[in-house]
Amino acid sequence: MQRVFKSVLGVWLVAMVLCLALNASATEAQSKVNINEAPVELLQALPGVGPALAQRIVEYREQTPFEAPEDIMKVSGIGEATFEKMKELIVVE
């Protein structure tokens, strides 16, 4: 009886760990900013981006949508240092 209980408990613990891991991955993906669609207010939440720079990002993408996250460095005012701070927070979809 104790053996069955330990087996069931072990399976339950493994299932819980998998659920937590999957939830963490989903949350991470949801928390990234799509720079092709994000409003100015959300872009301003990125490190190193203020109101003027957020507006330049929007103006740039209206002319030429971003094809890769690195393309944000084509916007005046975003260099490698700023990109390094935000690269884990942005996506292009």
How would you describe this protein?
The protein has about 90 residues and is mainly α. It folds into 2 domains: about 1-30; about 35-90, Photosystem II 12 kDa extrinsic protein (DNA polymerase, domain 1, Orthogonal Bundle). The protein contains 4 helices and 2 strands. It has a two-stranded parallel sheet with strand order 1-2. The longest helix has 30 residues, at about 1-30. It starts with a helix and ends with a strand. The model is unreliable at about 15-30 (pLDDT under 50).
Blueprint (SSEs and pairs):
Blueprint: H1 2-31, E1 33-34, H2 40-43, H3 51-63, H4 80-86, E2 90-91
Parallel strand pairs: 1-2
The secondary-structure class comes to mainly alpha
Q: Which blocks of ≥5 consecutive residues have pLDDT under 50? A: 17-29
> Strand-residue fraction?
under 5%
Pattern of helices and strands: HEHHHE
The helicity comes to 55-70%
CATH level 1 name of the largest domain? Mainly Alpha
Average pLDDT across residues?
83
The CATH homologous superfamily of the largest domain is named Photosystem II 12 kDa extrinsic protein
The order of strands across the largest sheet is 1-2
Number of helices: 4
Beta-strand segment tally: 2
How would a crystallographer describe the biggest sheet?
A: 2 strands, parallel
What does the radius of gyration come to? 20 Å
How many angstroms does the end-to-end distance come to?
53 Å
Overall 3D shape: elongated
CATH architecture of the largest domain: Orthogonal Bundle
CATH fold field value of the largest domain:
DNA polymerase, domain 1
Number of individual domains: 2
